[in-house]
Amino acid sequence: MNKRSLIQAAAALLVAATISPVLAQDKALKVGVTAGPHAQIFEQVKRIAEKDGLKIQIVEFSDYVQPNAALATGDLDANSYQHKPYLDQQIKDRGYRLVNVGYTVNFPIGLYSKKVKHLEDLKEGAKFGIPNDPTNGGRVLLVLQDKGLIKLRPEAGLKATPLDVIDNPKKLKFVELDAAQLPRSLDDLDASAVNTNYALSAGLQPNRDAIAQENAKSPYVNLIAVREQDKDKPWVAKLVKAYQSDEIRKFIQTQFKGAVIAGF
Fold this sequence. Notes:
The chain is α/β, with parallel strands linked by helices and 264 residues long. The protein contains ten helices and 13 strands. The N and C termini lie far apart (62 Å).
């Protein structure tokens, strides 16, 4: 190799070394969401984040299990779809090293029925659909207890199951289903609890169609999760800042009219 070739090779290496970090920063962050409000909100977050130099690729999921699995394996950089009790349970059950880096929205869960207009109208032995994951299933049972339909063992806490029901005057029969299936269960069951993101996707309006709703002041505020190793990276702060902006707060208020509540 002659002197000129050596100089050209050295120059090429210098350019590559200079450009590589920029290219790495330009790579879009993959953020997992569930379809419906989480996806709608993140489309707005994406737009705001881009003004701060942050590129986002939104990846939609149809269930609650895969977004954490994908985040843990590095297929996602962050996700935004779950509340803290659910994340805590996933970490305990699956050993994920994931952390909450910022709160987002609250979806007061609704109870729906095509058979009755009021909870008290449910007949003895009515079939009632609840989510089959421990945290959301327990959440619904707590709502039913708050509404006076059942009584749970005091020590059951947020992770109550149908086995913790100690008083059930109407002898409700609980049918545990995947949360995404609950809107479709309304044709077959007497009533079902439906998480608000799935309710809205199914055309249900909580403020109009729910026969009862959870108190908005609950421990089920949703969050943005990342891998523990990433929590202090600059892009995380930018992502949370974009979500927790006044612009997103106004979008939530306007778009969802109380069905979704800003939790930041």
